[in-house]
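Running this now, will post back.
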Amino acid sequence: MTAERMPTTLSGAATGDLVALIEGVLDARRERQGRGPWSGSRQPVHTVYVPADQFAEHTVAAWGDEARRLLDVHAPTADDLAAVFDVDPSTAARVRGRVAAKLEVEPVEDLRVDFEDGYGSRDAEEEDRDAARSARAVARILAEPGAPAFVGLRIKSFADGDHRRAIRTLDGFVTTLLDATDGALPDGFVVTFPKVVAAAHVEGFAELLDRLEHALGLPEGRLVFELQIETTESIVDHAGRITLPSLVTAAGGRLVGAHFGVFDYTAACGLPATQQRLDHPACDFARHVMQVTLAGSGIRLSDGSTNRVPGDDSTSAVHALWRHHASLVRHSLVHGFRQGWDMHPSHLVSRYAVLHAFHLAHLDDTVARLSAWADGNSGGGESDVADEPATVRALLGSLRRAIDCGAVDEHHALAAAGIDRDALVRST
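Update: finished.
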């Protein structure tokens, strides 16, 4: 039986120019989206910054040991953890077990040796020594079990007049690291470029990486970097334009992340020291600009840090810090920032406790909705939610992050959701 043909009025020739216009926009949008060098790969939940003069080959192990000690001493039971982190008692034991396992297996997901604010100004010979020594220490750390999946260094800012020092430290660190690893640059190696004030600086830094690659015989595009969004100029330029799109263009395809810097940004906004905090409304504005302008680009977003640490080793002091840090991690999660900075071993406990509790609290609902979608029953049967494709992508992203950070077991979660790992990665 021949299907009835629907009558139309406009010919293909009559709409050809419009089709070409529409397809041109689609092509341009596809080119902008998902172009980050690390698009589709795992994103760490945090970045740990350690000043270069304090960094050594035992640093990651020492952070893990101290975090486990703090957990055992100050939250020895599931009830203790539930009380301090406001975790549902029904899942507290699972959360505590997951946190303890994480601190044992992979206490630090992303490590950055800091030559900027945390390190300060040193004489040239001292920074040269620290750059070479810390690069060799990174090579030894990466050869051990439980090594961070991502590692790198933060150089000094081009905006502070320390550009020559920044270039030399970068060169010396990468050269030494390659010597110590027989020329094999770690897969998750990244450079942090701080205090961005102009697209020209970003363009110059991208060119510097290109020249260093060629000089070291690295593949083109192998050296990547992340920007620290911590100046007002990196949000809105002197002419009142949103700055980030121009920074992405200037990076020449090497940009993998944008990290928010709370203290420099709030100071630049004129906030008093008492209000230089991650959950200030001024920071929410900056984060929202970062979200909107970088959405779909494949460039990862990270929140900043707290500068608070336990005043002493008393349970009251540690619990006070944990509650403070936990509230900031939750604030970041609510705003869609699933990565942040950690500056002290105590922060590892509160970050993983909040993240694991967050993922476990939503796991059953996430799995059920994904299973219903896979079966074509979204919004039917026992489900009271008719999910749309965009929401399903968000659910897949949430499940992947839960698996990647160790909050849930991959095999059981994927089996319950009715999907496999390849489908999860392709969808996120």
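The chain has two domains: 46-360, 363-427. More later if anyone needs it.
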